[in-house]
Amino acid sequence: MTWFKIEKPLFTLFIGAVLAGAMQVARGWSVRASIIILVLGGIGLVLALAQLISDVNALRSGKSAEALTMEAPALEGYGRWGSGEIWAWILGFYAAIHFVGFPLAVPLFVFSYTKGYGGGWRVSALLAVLSWGFVYSLFDTLLHVPWPEPLFSIF
Q1: Is the pTM of this model over 0.85?
Q2: Which of 4, 5, 105, 145 could be a cystine partner for 97, CB 3.0 to 4.6 Å?
Q3: Residue 151 belongs to some domain of the structure
Q4: Angstrom distance (rounded) from CA 16 to CA 46
Q5: What is the pLDDT of residues 48-76, one digit of tens each?
Q6: What is the arithmetic mean of pLDDT over 72-97?
Q7: For the chain, what is the domain count?
Q8: Are residues 56 and 91 both part of a single domain?
């Protein structure tokens, strides 16, 4: 086995070790200081593991490793509105934040967007609940972010 064939898995292991080391160091910090390192490091470790699996499978099969494609397809400016539809969603989300507040605007936006682009009721509701749970657990419970008062207060 030549050095060139094992170079990719070794580099992926190195990146994973750097991320794991950074997360280990950040565990001793306060929550506010370490949260970004732990969240992004966790995501990076999952991606490094996916890349390592791809590299090892390519090494075992003897083929050259194909690059993992984790990119979203490029947006096409179709229709007569072009990117106006995107701006309408952004401005609608901004308005929802001011009218009902950020913790309720996020699941409302996620549900509307998912349902508007062909998602089923279950998927849309599940994603809305997960997004609300993420916002509530991270920003309200863990970080205690003070939210500005919305124009229409439901609670």
Answers
A1: no
A2: 105
A3: no
A4: 9
A5: 999 999 888 888 887 655 555 556 565 56
A6: 76
A7: 2
A8: no
